[in-house]
Amino acid sequence: MSLLKITSLKTWFPTRDGIVKAVNAVDLEIGDKEKLGLIGETGSGKTILGMTIIRLLQPSTKIEGEIWYKGKDLLKLCEEEMRKIRGKKIAMILQNPTTSLNPVLKIGDQIAEAIQLHQGLNKKEAKEKAIEMLEAVRIPSPEKMANEYPHEFSGGMKERAMIAMALACDPSLIIADEPTKGLDVTIKMQIIKLMKEVTARKSMLFITHDLGAAAEICDNIAVMYAGELVEYAKTEDIFKNPMHPYTQGFLNSLPRMGLKPIRGMSPSLIDLPNGCRFHPRCDHAEEICKNRHPEMAEIEKGHHVRCFLYT
Questions:
Q1: Are 228 and 273 in contact (CB under 8 A)?
Q2: Which tens digit of pLDDT belongs to each residue from 76-122?
Q3: Domains (ranges, CATH) in the chain?
Q4: Cα(170)–Cα(147) distance, rounded to whole angstroms?
Q5: What whole-number distance in Å separates Cα of residue 269 and Cα of residue 149?
Q6: Cα first-last separation, the chain
Q7: More confident site: 64 or 258
Q8: Which of 4, 104, 187, 287 is the most exposed place for a label (fewest CB within 10 A)?
C-alpha cells in the first residue's frame, strides 16, 4: 500500500530568464517503510520535487497534479493544515546543514522548538526530548552538545543534528536531501549506517547523486533527468541492468567504472529540447527521439523506462 502517491506533478516557477520547468509530469509512489532513492545530476529537479511534496516553495510557484498522503491531497490543504503535517508527519532533512541550522540558536533549542510546536510539550520537556534525540543519532555527550551552537559542530555532527531534528516528532515519511554531500568517506559511511538504523520503520525519499549511498540504503531507485523520471526499478536491477542510456552513462561515470563522463551538458530547465530530453547527449538517438517525447513504459516486471529503444 502506498504511503505517498504523486500523480502528474508539475512544478514550474518564474525567473528573470524565463519559466523554470523543474518538475514535469512526474508519477511516483512510496510504500510503507519503503526507501526510494531519487538520483540524477545536479539541476535535474530532485530537490524541487522533495520541496514540492512538503510545500516549501515560493508562493509564485505554479504546481499542478496531485500528491496523496494518507488519503489527503497535500496540494489542496491550506497552509495551516499543511503546517500540522510538515515536520510531524513528513519531515525533511535539508541539503546543507551549515545554512539550514540557525547560527544564533543552540542546537538543542532548535530541535526542542519543533517538538514544542507539534507535540505540545513544555519547554523543559521538549529540551529533554531534544537531548534524547541527539543521543539517538550517536552524538557524544548529548546534554553538553545540546547547549552548543552550530559553528561548534563538525560537518558530520551537524548532519546528525539535522537527522535528530527530522526524527524528533516521529514522522512516517522522511525526505532526505543529499545527507552525505560534502562529507569525507569515513563520516559518510557513518551517516549511511545511521540513516539505515533510524529509518528502519519509516518510509524515506532519499535524494542523492551518490549512487553508493543509494545502493546501501534504498529498496528502489528512480532516475531523474531534466525534470522527469527516465527509469524506475529495484535497486539491484538499476545497478545490474540499467536500461536507459542516461542511467548507463551515469553509472559509467563512477570512479570504479572508469570515470567515463556523459558527453555534453544537462539542458537548461528553461529551454528543454524537443522530443526525448536526453537525445542531444545520447549515442543511440534516432530521428524519432528528436521529434517525439517518449512515455514511461514497463519493459520488465517492475522495471520502467522512458526510451524509444524499448518500444
A1: no
A2: 999 999 999 998 999 999 888 888 899 999 999 999 998 988 888 89
A3: 2-83+207-310 (3.40.50.300)
A4: 23
A5: 38
A6: 29
A7: 64
A8: 104
